[in-house]
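Example record

One chain of 536 residues, shown exactly as stored in the release files.
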Amino acid sequence: MSQTSPRSGSSTLGKGKVFALAGYQPLTAEVVAFHSSKARTRIAHAPARTSKSYAAAHEAYYHCFPSFEKLPSGKWAFEREPTGDRRIWLVGPDYKTIKEWDYLWWHLVVQKRRTPLGRFYRITTKANSAQQGNLKIVMEFPPDKNGDTPRVIVEGKSATNAESLQGEQVYMAVLSEAAELDEKILGRYLGTRSKYVLAPTTPKLSADWLRKLIEDGEAHPELSIESFRFTPYANPEYDWDLYWIEHAKAESRCAGKILTTPRGHDCFADLAACAASSDPWFAEQFQGQWTGADERLLPFGAQHVLDTVPDWCRSARVFVACDYGYSDASVGLFFAIGERDHLVILSEVYERQTTATEFVGKIREKAKAIGARPDYYVGDPKQPQIARLMRDRGLPVWDVDKRAMADRAAGYHALIDAMSLDPVTRTAKLRVVSEKAGEPFGCPQTIREMKNLRRKIGGSALEFSTGAVIGSDHAVDCCRYALQTRPQLKSIEPDTEMRRYLASLRRRAAHAAPPPLGRLVGGAPRQIAEGFHHGV
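Predicted structure tokens for this chain:
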């Protein structure tokens, strides 16, 4: 029933034995590896209904039983934590969504009398009221050799009030529905207070910070971060009929026809060979890949990224669009216009805490670095000082209706249209050069924004309002302003639109009926007023 611990004279309950007594059996190698890992942070990422929360709850259940040792009297006594009580926190977006709590309540409270593990502890406090925000189990174990009573305190916590997570030292934190939690929950509140962290999650755009943790763990083993990709095989009750129905839909969307019969191949043996995995929504929801399709605001993908600068861009017509902010990022993007009015974003200026003068200077430096002479510059419609500074420096500024340029919905629709595939060339109409092209080209921050910008669930009814969008959108705003100029391959003089508008006003005034005499002097041109003065 026990296995020897590295510490002399002490033992721990065997994990396999605890699982067996709880009636829990890991079914796949990935789940076994998750439980066997000694990493401080363990991230289980997989599609829905693949036992992530179930496995995390049983890992927490095992840790509800602290180390124990045999006393001279021959009795077994549990050891206390160096910090006193052992605290296990289950942290969710709110109290009602902590699935791991339900599993632990079942094992620790409901099944206490039905399992041999129940004789090791007594419950002094228990509360299971999600409505009142009171989820708590206090377990007491037999006194240790010093006569102290070890306790394990299991609590459900809500991330809605993040400040409530401060102050306590936590033995283990389980981030329930980790994709729904803000990065600061771990980074600011639990990162320095938890000995162990479990983060079960379905890949989502809102969980991109977890994906970065996974990449950091793979690149730096010393960080003690390990990740585990669960598959539907981990759940013996998984609905495979539903899976294959959605699989057929995904194939029809990607290939135009259904290629695979139900259970015709093992998708998870080689996801790259599965035609259905080309559909971003299916790949995320049913295969656990990090596509962000369900939340992504823009249809941005690998087809929009160029790792080299196309040859035609070297001699193409170029223009610059800007979005300025001092506290926020100030962004300037360099666009090259190609055949069929395709656009390639060649390079970016992406700076914070920079004055308007410095920002315009950096744009001019970047233009020189990439060897471009922009035909025109598009200022920020909400920051007129940028256009004014550019004019002062002799730069040609495209002057259009500021209200039309700032129209978010129209700009976003134009941007989404630009990201569609051209039926003739079969390439996206708008593409971005990555940093792999080498300095001074590349737009890493722009690519990051377009990938990570997402919708706010339950937010504003206006589809593209600031209240409906989550994430940095400075470079995206640049693109909106750029597309509002309707860039074309054929060169157009920057101020043509404004000049045409003024000319139309002059023509309209010339054909208008003369105003009444009583109103001439106050608003008439000088020469007419002088004529009346001299009695003409």
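Notes: The two ends are 118 Å apart (CA to CA).
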